[in-house]
From TrEMBL:
This is Flavoprotein. InterPro entries: Flavin_trans-like, Flavoprotein. It comes from the Bacteria. It holds the Pfam family Flavoprotein. GO terms for molecular function: FMN binding; phosphopantothenoylcysteine decarboxylase activity. The lineage of its organism: Bacteria, Bacillati, Actinomycetota, Rubrobacteria, Rubrobacterales. One of its GO terms (cellular component) is phosphopantothenoylcysteine decarboxylase complex. SUPFAM superfamilies: Homo-oligomeric flavin-containing Cys decarboxylases, HFCD (SSF52507).
Amino acid sequence: MYIPGVSGTQQRRVLIAVTGGIAAYKAPGVIRRLREAGLEVRAAATEAAFRFVPEETLAIAAGSPLFTDRTWWERSGRVEHVSLARWADLVLVAPATADALARVAVGLGDDLVSATVLAGARKVLWAPAMNPEMWQSPATRRNVETLKGWGHGFVGPAEGLMASTEELPGVGRLAEEAEIIAAARAALDGPAGRDERPG
């Protein structure tokens, strides 16, 4: 259990990054489960995520202000994507869209989420959610393999009905909350990343 101010005890830190897929509406539940697991959580989101989940809902679930493209530059002069990458023991991208995977895989850092992942994040765990055809496309498969080659982890996607009523069952659903939390804890308990833990 984390006790503030007690030497030798440090709460593990997870930045959950929400991207703009319809499964973003499930992100508040994932955030709550992370906090219930005893993790210190901050949340970031792309502007596209707000099409599917209100900014206020994510902030309330996280229990702290949300990091967005509009807050990218801190008043202190620090740059948030660098600060967040250094703060987090794990960056969990949930849901991760095909676009988010592609941006990072090709080195685009033009939004806060992709920039944070590229700014030296210790560990990265992707929870993809997208149309089954998109998940199976050669471009997405190539991007996934690239990110795995960098040491990034993946949880899901799961098989089942998609959000759209026009979709047939397939592999593309966001993994269940319990599976995502278990994968996050396993990633945190795995081999250490960078040693430094700046505040």
